[in-house]
Amino acid sequence: KAQACALGQVGFSVILLDEKPVSRQPGRPFDGRVSALGRASCRLLEALELWPAIAPDAQPIRDILVSDGRLGRRPSPLHLHFDHLDGAAGEAGEPLGHIIANQQLRTALHKAISLLPRVSIRSPARVSAMERDAFGVTLTLEDGETLRAPLCIAADGSGSPLREMAGIRSITWEYAQTGIVVTAHHERPHDGVAHEYFLPGGPFAILPMTGNRSSLVWTEPHARAKALFALDQDSFDAELRARFGAQWGRIESDADRFLYPLSFRHARDYIADRLALAGDAAHTIHPIAGQGFNLGLRDVAVLAEVLHDARRLGLDIGARTVLERYQSWRRFDNVSLSLMMDMLNRLFRMDTPLARLARDIGMGAFGRIGPLRRLASRHAAGDMGDLPKLLRGEAL
Ligand SMILES: Cc1cc2nc3c(=O)[nH]c(=O)nc-3n(C[C@H](O)[C@H](O)[C@H](O)COP(=O)(O)OP(=O)(O)OC[C@H]3O[C@@H](n4cnc5c(N)ncnc54)[C@H](O)[C@@H]3O)c2cc1C
Questions:
Q1: 250 CA distance to ligand 1 centroid (A)?
Q2: Rounded to the nearest 5°, which phi and psi values hold at 217?
Q3: pLDDT tens digit sequence for 201-225
Q4: What residue spans define the domains of the chain?
Q5: What are the C-alpha distances in Å from 255 to residues 33, 101, 234?
């Protein structure tokens, strides 16, 4: 949707296909997830003039606390603290990013694109076949309708049917972990602080939302996650309290819980004849630091700029040379961040006393070296490297 919005705003004719309607069950959460958006992603949403619709529901992230933990014990005192007063990812005092529910983002994007005269939305609509030739691509929908365009952008998620139809292979592995996602209501305010506790089963992230609410991404080995997921409300909340600690006061979770089995996937190519992959279709990463959607928005910004430039120069937007510019611009950032998240997860899953000691000392030292800490902060905010216009907050 973000890609359709970016292209539609500069006058491209876009047909947006989505197999899921914008809201499956009115009043119910769409996928339960929130996205922690770095500053560059927020600038993109500002450049697309979406921010006013999103801002009321976006919770600023003031600080991020990262610590190694064990159930029943206090977190290690050697933690990492990213402070908005550091000015690492912008002016000192500016938030490190914002947290927004995926459903709200989806609704805001849907509203914005439905106002664009050259974007048409087909939803629910499912692609059943794709044919590509030298001049364009033909998609057949499940209802038999066919659509023709010079370029198809596959932003159809990790399992990307279009990527499979094009025969693009991926490097992939499973994490043997499942993320439980749920919203918790707590008595005391979170003060805009996001927490990441590294517990032996996997990371336990508390992401502040507007009001006294936080979204939890609670990672455990598959069987344990399923067992926790199946608990009745009281037992589930008791498990939550054991992980939260006392500082939030009374805690209750929403009845809606979601399970996400976690895997790594990276497409060997982001492009093929008349086809470009974007977002999770190109790269799926561990949600350990909430970077997946941010990477996808960076793809969106680069692809929009590359296509816009090509059209201005009178080039065919589906030409291989045009798509190669997109691929080479995005590949290094995507590969390096994906592997970094994978390494972090492996490092924090080691549960020997020596590994814990090394981690604690490493985090303590890292936290005290200002330039290193600021570099990590800028990386997470998406403020590194050759930024396309939208990520700098500029219109195309
Ligand atoms: C537990 C968890 C927590 C996360 N937290 C964060 C976070 O805090 N910050 C962050 O940046 N990222 C986070 N992520 C990652 C983020 O959710 C994903 O990177 C992001 O949703 C990918 O977006 P996408 O549009 O590429 O794919 P998807 O969100 O999977 O969307 C794919 C779309 O394609 C449509 N589709 C699929 N197949 C077809 C078809 N055949 N025909 C038509 N339409 C089709 C689907 O309906 C869907 O709308 C998290 C991930 C997980 C699992």
A1: 32
A2: -120, 105
A3: 888 999 999 999 999 999 999 999 9
A4: 2-61+87-171+266-333+370-392
A5: 14, 17, 11
| pLDDT tier, 82 (very low <50, low <70, confident <90, very high otherwise) | confident
Q: Rounded distance, CA 87 to CA 287, Å?
A: 25
According to the model, what pLDDT value does residue 89 have?
A: 53
What's 381's DSSP letter? T
CA 91 and chain centroid, separation: 24
Which two structure tokens, joined as six digits, stand for 212? Answer: 């006294």
| Most informative mutation of 105, 293, 295 for ligand 1 (most atoms within 8 A of CB) | 293
Distance (Å, rounded) from C-alpha 351 to C-alpha 339? 21
Question: 50 with 337: CB under 8 angstroms?
Answer: no
Instruction: Check: CB of residue 30 under 8 Å from CB of residue 102.
Output: yes
- Mapping DSSP to helix (H, G, I), strand (E, B) and coil, where does residue 134 land? coil
pLDDT in tens, 97-110: 999 999 999 999 99
Residues with CB under 6 A from ligand 1: 17-20, 33, 35-36, 126-127, 155-157, 161, 179, 181, 217, 260, 279-281, 287, 290-294, 296
Distance 304 CA to ligand 1 centre (A): 19
Distance, in Å, from the CA atom of 113 to the CA atom of 96, rounded to the nearest integer, reads 28
Q: In terms of Cα–Cα distance, which of 134, 185, 154, 161 is closest to 320? A: 134
- Could you tell me the distance, in angstroms and rounded to a whole number, from the CA of residue 92 to the centre of ligand 1? 32
- Residues with Cβ within 8 Å of residue 100, at least 6 apart in sequence: 34, 35, 37, 54, 57, 58, 59
Ligand 1 centroid, distance to 394 Cα (angstroms): 25
For domain 2-61+87-171+266-333+370-392, the question of CATH label 3.40.718.10 is answered with no
pLDDT at 86 over 80: no
Report the pLDDT value the prediction gives residue 264, as an integer from 0 to 100: 97
Instruction: Return the minimum-mean-pLDDT range out of 194-198, 344-348, 363-367, 386-390.
Output: 363-367
Whether 356 and 79 have beta carbons less than 8 Å apart is answered as no
pLDDT higher than 90, residue 254 = yes
